[in-house]
Write a structure and sequence with these properties.
It is found in: Cytoplasm; Nucleus. By secondary structure, the chain is of the alpha+beta class. Helix content is about 25%, strand content about 20%. The strands form 2 sheets. Strands 1-2-10-7-12-5-4-3 form an 8-stranded mixed sheet. Strands 6-11-8-9 form a 4-stranded antiparallel sheet, with no helix packed on it.
Length: about 350
Amino acid sequence: MAGVPGSSTAASFTTAMSLTKMAKVPERFVLPPSHRPLIYNHLHNYHSTTSPLPVIDLVPIHDPSLRSRVIEDICNACKEFGFFQVINHGVSPSLMKDVVQACLEFFNLPIEEKLHLVSEDVNKPVRYGTSLNHVKDTIHFWRDFLKHYSNPLSKWIHSWPSNPPSYKEKMGDYAKATHLLHIELLEAIFESLGLDPKYMRREIEDGSQVMAVNCYPACPEPEKALGMPPHSDYGCITILLQTCEGLEVKLDKEDKWVPVPMIEGALLVHLGDHMEILSNGVYKSVVHRVVVNAETERLSIASLHSLALEKYIGPAAELVNEQNPKAYKESSFKDFLDHISENDIMQQRFIDTLKIGNP
């Protein structure tokens, strides 16, 4: 257990990775029975789980004669799930492999080499931590994370970890690739809503990109803990790379959790709260959580995309009329940070505070 330099509110800081050899998870990680996940005993059982979740091939999107079919598939996925996987997305397999390796090397560093990045301040542009808020959380979550701003790259890359030596180069290349992919995906999503594909193009190109790298260590009692609690992401979309199964999405119509299958080379796309706002509720942000397992660690790299920190987003004027009145208040990325710094996301989702007519 290592102390946090300069911390006045945390006497000590313990990573989840340091607890994997314990016979039981510490009490602070144990969820109430009603919040505990259904756990598959072995990873291969995950593979046998059938899932209706959509997978979209992006190759035809560049063919004018085939693009409309892809747009229709994206529309259906956004309406039904708020989530889909993409294949043939243009991010090279070697780049994905390299960035995963660089991230694993970071998490495997001695804790002393990471402590200078520990902070309780959610506004910090580079932050290493565990759980959600290791000081305020009454229940902790079984993960360690590294988060940092990434767009524009020239502004932020100097503040990223210098160890391992390959981290800045590999993550920088991956951040650039996912930034370009998110622009392409938003064009398609806007088109599926009947908007101009270039809608808010300048704001999107100049928007915020946060890379959130999550390490979920093997857990001695996975049936009692979660890597992340049920939540939705704040931004427009999130592009996620995962090394193995563990992510589950909530299907509201059936009120059940569905495990997201591992597809080699695929990237996962989540709609966030700001897309729900922009679409005036036509599309909904997807609620998801992370389960852990006793056999292996899981790494995920989330590229979270929103408008600039203090740039407000509201329902698109084209999607508001007498039949579909404005349903959400405007919001910014900074509003979200203020919300999570003061509230327990297990008690109230950020999007619920923005719905017009809510108390």
